[in-house]
């Protein structure tokens, strides 16, 4: 990459969540525990949906794929965060930083599109139930997962390549605990207009477009639910998508606020921590506790193991 060859910066210093060394061990243990909970929770969801035949439906297939993506997303953030919390030199190499940028951009955008795919699935089930089985065939479901992955990888590579085209000749201190496009743009001393425009377009494609798809799908879903006669039927229809609405709201809510807050503000770091670590740890419990099918499958699996 041309930007890497021309830059004067060889590494970046990541400013972690606290300036007080005595709190870093506590934060390390806390984030390690949350990370382990996230891995166990998402792996459990994947295994349950794989092993229980009653969950071999498009909805649970997408949930398991979303859980897989969350494991990759969290794993692209947390190991660097943990290592810097206990290291004296809280740095990351120039190349390592952009590897993390590419990974976060790939998995983050894929999560956004998988949320959109899950919204499409629920919209189809509620609004077109008679055509659902015919449309949501296994090969089509696989395509709905593979296509976002492929497009998001390409999108992330483009964004990363053009971000390396920025000139990093000033401060190498990122006011963040991970390498992301926003903080890197903030510390760059020269940002070519073409590069900035290209990166902005990739961000719109990776975040804004799937967000708009989600909004449109759920407007359609809620409009249909409101028209359903009978409170029992309404609750049943809403229960099929309530977990997804909660997960999407948590993810997009914290991510949107984090991107709107100025990068010099520490609040941006705390919000990023929520959507990159806390939310993925909570999601498996949302899908489990608010879903009778998953709870039943979990109980059957527990009995089988015991």
UniProtKB/TrEMBL annotation:
<dbReference type="GO" id="GO:0004984">
    <property type="term" value="F:olfactory receptor activity"/>
</dbReference>
<dbReference type="InterPro" id="IPR000725">
    <property type="entry name" value="Olfact_rcpt"/>
</dbReference>
<keyword id="KW-0325">Glycoprotein</keyword>
<keyword id="KW-0472">Membrane</keyword>
<feature type="transmembrane region" description="Helical">
    <location>
        <begin position="98"/>
        <end position="120"/>
    </location>
</feature>
<feature type="domain" description="G-protein coupled receptors family 1 profile">
    <location>
        <begin position="41"/>
        <end position="287"/>
    </location>
</feature>
<keyword id="KW-0812">Transmembrane</keyword>
<dbReference type="GO" id="GO:0004930">
    <property type="term" value="F:G protein-coupled receptor activity"/>
</dbReference>
<dbReference type="InterPro" id="IPR000276">
    <property type="entry name" value="GPCR_Rhodpsn"/>
</dbReference>
<feature type="transmembrane region" description="Helical">
    <location>
        <begin position="25"/>
        <end position="48"/>
    </location>
</feature>
<feature type="transmembrane region" description="Helical">
    <location>
        <begin position="140"/>
        <end position="162"/>
    </location>
</feature>
<feature type="transmembrane region" description="Helical">
    <location>
        <begin position="60"/>
        <end position="86"/>
    </location>
</feature>
<keyword id="KW-1003">Cell membrane</keyword>
<feature type="transmembrane region" description="Helical">
    <location>
        <begin position="273"/>
        <end position="290"/>
    </location>
</feature>
<dbReference type="GO" id="GO:0005886">
    <property type="term" value="C:plasma membrane"/>
</dbReference>
<keyword id="KW-0675">Receptor</keyword>
<dbReference type="Pfam" id="PF13853">
    <property type="entry name" value="7tm_4"/>
</dbReference>
<keyword id="KW-0297">G-protein coupled receptor</keyword>
<feature type="transmembrane region" description="Helical">
    <location>
        <begin position="204"/>
        <end position="226"/>
    </location>
</feature>
<keyword id="KW-0807">Transducer</keyword>
<keyword id="KW-0552">Olfaction</keyword>
<protein>
    <recommendedName>
        <fullName>G-protein coupled receptors family 1 profile domain-containing protein</fullName>
    </recommendedName>
</protein>
<keyword id="KW-1133">Transmembrane helix</keyword>
<feature type="transmembrane region" description="Helical">
    <location>
        <begin position="238"/>
        <end position="261"/>
    </location>
</feature>
<keyword id="KW-0716">Sensory transduction</keyword>
<dbReference type="InterPro" id="IPR017452">
    <property type="entry name" value="GPCR_Rhodpsn_7TM"/>
</dbReference>
